[in-house]
């Protein structure tokens, strides 16, 4: 039995706020499907760390929830350049703590994820959680940029392809802030981590011709090197940003992949509150 698609009408959604450590009120949209007691997916939206909002990602999160039936928490983290790293990371971690304390079932699990720049932030959050003993059942990352210098060959293979290397380098610079003001960058990107052992299971997706694809493949290889269960899916038809788009009546392919990952991780045919053994 797969999670299967449900109608959007079967999804309940609401808005809330979580207080960050500095007192800022982080806005959330919470989407609940019929299987919300099984797991919560805390999602960080994309937008090159400088754009994106709960409203911009609303339709996509609604569609994903209607497909997988779980609880999805869409996080309105603070954006650059006004807010530089690690503000967005800390906002996401505040929501992870809140979501962990508000799991709808005692046996429910928490997963962190994000698309594009949100995937970068989610990857840093997963590392932080490992280092600070916060249990996370997995991370799901859709085409995250992971190298601030954008040095891999995939960035140069098709210079005009979105996201363009120069634009992404500029977005990284705005996210990191002026050189003189940069704070601890330990969790800026998981490519900085020399040892990934003990990290939660990870699923990654990228387009074959996405400029960030070499970053994603390198991270997957590093995870596997350090013994972390890591699933990498490369799709020749996938474009950067496709998490947002619905083309025709068929489900969004990124959403279908996320649903498949969750079906792989969770035993939906027996006890809905048991995780499968890592494959």
Q: Report the mean per-residue pLDDT as an integer.
A: 91
Please tally the β strands and state the result.
8
User: Given the structure, what is the number of helices?
Assistant: 7
Enumerate the spans where pLDDT stays under 50 for 5 or more consecutive residues. 1-6, 268-279
Spatial order of strands in the largest sheet: 1-2-4-3-5-6-7-8
CATH architecture: 3-Layer(aba) Sandwich
Secondary-structure element sequence? Answer: EEEHEHEHEHHEHEH
Question: What would you give as the CATH superfamily?
Answer: Alpha/Beta hydrolase fold, catalytic domain
Shape: globular
What is the CATH C-level name? Alpha Beta
**Portion in strands:** 15-25%
Count of discrete domains: 1
Distance between the termini: 18 Å
Helix percent reads: 25-40%
**CATH fold call:** Rossmann fold
* Biggest sheet record: 8 strands, mixed
Structural class: alpha/beta
């Amino acid at each position: 039995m797969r999670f299967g698609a449900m109608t959007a009408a079967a999804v309940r959604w609401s808005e809330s706020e979580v207080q960050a450590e500095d007192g800022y009120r982080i806005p959330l949209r919470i989407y609940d499907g019929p299987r919300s007691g099984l797991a919560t997916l805390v999602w960080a939206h994309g937008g090159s760390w400088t754009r994106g909002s709960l409203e911009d990602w609303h339709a996509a999160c609604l569609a994903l929830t209607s497909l997988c039936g779980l609880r999805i928490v869409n996080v309105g983290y603070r954006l650059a350049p006004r807010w530089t790293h690690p503000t967005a990371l800390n906002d996401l971690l505040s929501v992870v703590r809140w979501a962990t304390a508000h799991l709808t079932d005692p046996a429910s699990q928490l997963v962190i994820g994000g698309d594009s720049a949100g995937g970068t932030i989610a990857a840093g959050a997963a590392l932080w959680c490992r280092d600070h003993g916060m249990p996370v059942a997995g991370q799901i990352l859709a085409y995250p940029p992971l190298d601030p210098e954008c040095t891999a060959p995939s960035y140069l293979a098709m210079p005009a392809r979105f996201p363009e290397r120069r634009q992404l380098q500029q977005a990284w610079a705005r996210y990191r802030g002026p050189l003189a003001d940069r704070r601890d960058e330990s969790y800026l990107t998981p490519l900085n981590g020399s040892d990934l052992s003990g990290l939660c299971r990870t699923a990654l997706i990228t387009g074959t011709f996405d400029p960030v694809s070499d970053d994603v493949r390198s991270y997957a290889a590093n995870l596997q090197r350090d013994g972390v269960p890591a699933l990498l899916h490369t799709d020749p038809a996938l474009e950067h940003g496709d998490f947002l788009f619905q083309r025709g009546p068929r489900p969004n392919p990124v959403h279908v992949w996320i649903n498949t990952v969750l079906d792989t991780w969770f035993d939906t045919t027996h006890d809905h509150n048991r995780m499968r053994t890592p494959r």
